[in-house]
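Suppose you are handed only these lines of text.
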Amino acid sequence: MSTGQHAATGLEDVSFVHVGLPDLATSQIDTLTTIGGLTFGSPIFINAMTGGGGESTYEINRSLSIAAKETNIPVAVGSQMAALKDREERRTYEIVRKVNPDGLVFANLGSEATLQQAREAVDMLEANMLQIHLNVIQEIVMPEGDRDFRGAIERIAAIAESIGVPVVVKEVGFGMSKETAKKLFHAGVTAVDVGGFGGTNFSKIENLRRQKALRYFDQWGIPTAASLAEVHTAFQNQTVLASGAFKMLLM
Ligand SMILES: Cc1cc2nc3c(=O)[nH]c(=O)nc-3n(C[C@H](O)[C@H](O)[C@H](O)COP(=O)(O)O)c2cc1C
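From them, the structure of the protein bound to flavin mononucleotide can be written out as follows.
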């Protein structure tokens, strides 16, 4: 695999701590998880990966939504910016709600989104939650990237205050520091998703399209395990979601 990597997640150093005295019956164990007042059947969810629009987005969103419905887990769509810019693309996202009318569906936009755009994205899917992704490194490496990152935290705060559904801010494979998480929790977000380093690598992906590769960023990021430990330790009373590189465990 040329655009991911192995053994850089930190997860290879993580294992369960054995508990010799659990003091419960296995029949008491359930996987119900609550985030921002929403109850999930499982702590596992399908994260965003279908931005862009087009027939492939439609087909993948449809398949993911069927899988989410059958397994009763939440599903996030990829960035809906394509559908906000071009109404024709809306159907490629709306299919997720059509297939799974009662399931938990997450809307998704980048941190450039305004409150108005966030409202449209949530309405488009009757979404239960909104994900806002941070993708600074991808934008820097991407040849046509938008490198003006000003005002993101103010926009996120405005959205979190008024959108009416829980807001999760996520990274996309570069991890999150406790300093960034602190700003986000102060801005009023419901949860952060550390989206750590070690799996999909958007620097490597975008470097494939550059004439002069910015290889420096291929190794940039906080490994998932380190990011999760740092942010969870700093904010034990807040909701911290773990994603990034988990598929590597299954390889
Ligand atoms: C093909 C692809 C498209 C993605 N598109 C989005 C997106 O539109 N919005 C978003 O928030 N994250 C997007 N992501 C990022 C993922 O949600 C995730 O944060 C990232 O891939 C790191 O996790 P991983 O190492 O398990 O792949 C995308 C990932 C992939 C592989």
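What can we learn from it? Strands lie at 33-35, 38-40, 75-76, 105-110, 129-134, 167-171, 191-193, 239-241. Residues 55-71 form the longest helix (17 residues).
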